[in-house]
Amino acid sequence: MSNTDFVLAIEDLTVSFDGFKAVDGLNLYVDKNELRVVIGPNGAGKTTVLDMICGKTKATSGSIKFKGMELTKMAEHQIVRAGVGRKFQTPSIYENLSVFENLEISFPRGRTVFGALMFKRTADVDQRIHEVADMIYLSDLLDKEAGLLSHGQKQWLEIGMLLIQDPELLMLDEPVAGMSVREREQTADLLNRICQDRSVIVIEHDMEFVKRIAHKVTVLHQGKILSQGTMEQVQSDERVIEVYLGH
Ligand code: ADP
User: Fold this and answer.
1) 62 lines ligand 1 (CB under 6 A)
2) Does ligand 1 lie within 6 Å of residue 46's CB atom?
3) Is 56 buried (19+), middle (13-18) or exposed (0-12) by CB count in 10 A?
4) Domains of the chain (ranges plus CATH)?
5) Nearest atom in ligand 1 to 203's CA
6) Nearest atom of ligand 1 to the alpha carbon of 45
7) What pLDDT, in 10s, does the model give residues 76-93?
8) pLDDT per position as a tens digit, 151-163
9) How far is CA 136 from CA 2, 3, 147, 148, 188, in A?
10) Alpha carbon distances (Å) from 117 to 22, 32, 113, 122
């Protein structure tokens, strides 16, 4: 497989903050329909990598190619338009609006102010909102004020708001933090369904959850890849055990 066949191809990516390399010569390749989990101790550089993919943090050097497009040269809003969605740990939903309105407001409205003004709710928009609401377990709660949802439901709503934009790469930062056991199971099922149509990168600390969802796991340590492979492979890797257990 050549590097251009990957949805995401990161090569020799480095970012320095006052001389400190938070990400140091990283190479990372993500396939179409792959669900990649990035793990690693605090400070390993996980968040910084996602920040660089979505354009929030600019790389010091290296390349991030998404479907052949060089993301390091693009602004955040251009990266979103190119098809990269990012969910942060704290949901950014509109608490005073209904579930339906939150999904509707997230619908892509064209690239111009004119496009946004001309936006009309069509049958297609309605159908897509219902499809997404069904996917995120909220189809019976479309009229409910988002602020009244449970913590887990709010997380799903934000995932739904990203799905409405139909990203080809979805990145999630600790999606099950604070969720109940049942909500974690539902989130695992949701992520498995999401990656049937797109690629997903998840940062996660909950190893039981990682086991359930990961196609491949990348272990970051001090800005570099310490180990990579299936969950079984990285779990039995001496270097990973050493870093996690501190021997
Ligand atoms: P992780 O998500 O794996 O816990 P981070 O990516 O948040 O790690 O951070 C990696 C390292 O980079 C940490 O040492 C952190 O303090 C440092 N870092 C991240 N962002 C900045 C920044 N904007 N300025 C200075 N240092 C930063």
Assistant:
1) no
2) yes
3) middle
4) 3-83+167-245 (3.40.50.300), 86-151 (no CATH)
5) 2
6) 6
7) 999 999 999 998 777 689
8) 999 999 999 999 9
9) 35, 33, 16, 16, 11
10) 42, 34, 6, 14
Q: Which amino acid would we find at residue 246?
A: G
Give the model confidence (pLDDT) of 188-230 as tens digits.
Answer: 999 999 999 999 999 999 999 999 999 999 999 999 999 999 9
> Does the pLDDT of residue 111 top 50, yes or no?
no
Q: Which of 36-45, 114-123, 158-167 has the lowest mean pLDDT?
A: 114-123
